[in-house]
Amino acid sequence: MLEQLQTIDDLLLRRDIKKAEVLIARLLRSEQSLQGRARMLILRARARLFSARIDDALEDLQKARSLAPDQFETPQNLELLADTHFARFELASVGFADRADTAHALTCYHKILAEHPAYENAGWVHYQKARVLLTDSRTADAVNCLQQALLTPSTIPPLTAYCYERLGFVSFYEERDPKGALSFLNKAVATYPNIEPRIWLVQVHTLRSRILREIHDYDSAFDAASTAISVATSAGVEGRTGLADALLTAAETLSHMGGREREIISYVQQFTQISKRPLGIDVTWSRAHEMLGDACFKTGQYSPSITAYQNALQFNPYHPWELSLHYRIARSHYQLGDYDKAISAINRLLQAAKTDDQAIYDYKIYYVQGNAYFALGQYAKARDAYANALELAPPSAEHLEKLTQYYQHTQELSQG
């Protein structure tokens, strides 16, 4: 039996879940003692936690606790129970996460630290406790736990890197300290054991890329995103989620660099190909299509740019730049010579602005409208559009001279 238990432990450490569960099922069929069955259920709960079957894992733990309540209250079992509750909270669909799970997790973590201060994996307990606290915006307490985790023994080899990664996350998103965040993330990369799966580093390099972009170091930001893409790609199917995030981060960085539109198109197309299309509103997909639209427009691909902008509005009907997207759609139609559609897009923009009680400040909106009316021979409407554009145009406006000439010309044509 001891040899078989060691075999199961080894399989779980290697994440060979299927083989471990086959062996556990075989032992469950033969085991007669309550303590033995409880031990098997705990092992199966570990396997199910690793494979994200959280409810099944919790059910096994509850059964094990009922079979051998006195033997269950070990720090190892309490840690497993806490980790499983926290995993259920993290993996819950949006709107369905239950704070009771984080409360259960914290209760177990506190009990371990209070009753078993010399527990060999106490560092992990501090780290997990910090992660729970971060979900409740208790940032200062979480940072204290992460610092404690760095000073406390653990059986998890990459724990030091995990702690530095979370400290980097907090520094960037909570404390707005990009340089401090980069320092922590660089330590995370440096301390991550070479024997551990490389896939974890994808999120670190992706976050590094975002921070470098924030401080306008675009070349380094793109290098970091490229590293994340390379690592995620080498991980195959397991790297798909991280790959999607890294692709979008690379595209976002390139959008700040100029002249890299074809690469942006490639990255966004790869993102949409490997990501599951959302059923409803999704701001990430909206932003992806907005970038795709801009890149297509700059490369003269006006029909794809219209489709992309329309998708951006579809995925986020409450887009903060809704008026700008309508303008970009109109501009694309104009470039295609679809002047009626360009005017319709401008009218939708103006109606949206009226509905939301927003003022129009960009003269280019009326400039495009005037050009479209002019192309259709509707000179009086073109004149009125140009007049609106002139009212909004600043003295340094790029098209001011042409705009003035067009207005005067349409005045003459409309009067004649």
Describe the structure.
This protein is mainly alpha-helical and 416 residues long. Among the domains are: 1-72; 363-416, Serine Threonine Protein Phosphatase 5, Tetratricopeptide repeat. 76% of the residues lie in helices and 0% in strands. It has helices at residues 2-13, 17-30, 34-50, 54-67, 69-72, 75-91, 99-115, 122-135, 139-151, 159-173, 178-191, 201-214, 218-234, 240-254, 261-274, 283-298, 302-315, 322-336, 339-355, 363-375, 379-392, 400-415. The radius of gyration is 29 Å and the shape is elongated. The relative contact order is 0.03.
Quickly list its features.
single chain; Serine Threonine Protein Phosphatase 5, Tetratricopeptide repeat; mainly alpha; 416 residues; 22 helices
Largest pleated sheet? none
What fraction strand? under 5%
What is the string of helix and strand elements?
Answer: HHHHHHHHHHHHHHHHHHHHHH
Q: Which structural class matches the secondary elements?
A: mainly alpha
Low-confidence spans: none
Rg measurement, Å: 29 Å
Number of helices: 22
* Helix percentage range: over 70%
Output mean pLDDT. 93
Outline type: elongated
Number of strands: 0
Cα-to-Cα separation, first versus last residue: 102 Å
Summarize the structure.
By secondary structure, the chain is an all-alpha fold.
Write the layout of secondary structure elements.
Layout: H1 2-13, H2 17-30, H3 34-50, H4 54-67, H5 69-72, H6 75-91, H7 99-115, H8 122-135, H9 139-151, H10 159-173, H11 178-191, H12 201-214, H13 218-234, H14 240-254, H15 261-274, H16 283-298, H17 302-315, H18 322-336, H19 339-355, H20 363-375, H21 379-392, H22 400-415
Helix pairs in contact: 1-2, 2-3, 3-4, 3-6, 4-6, 6-7, 7-8, 8-9, 8-10, 9-10, 10-11, 11-12, 12-13, 12-14, 13-14, 14-15, 15-16, 16-17, 17-18, 18-19, 18-20, 19-20, 20-21, 21-22
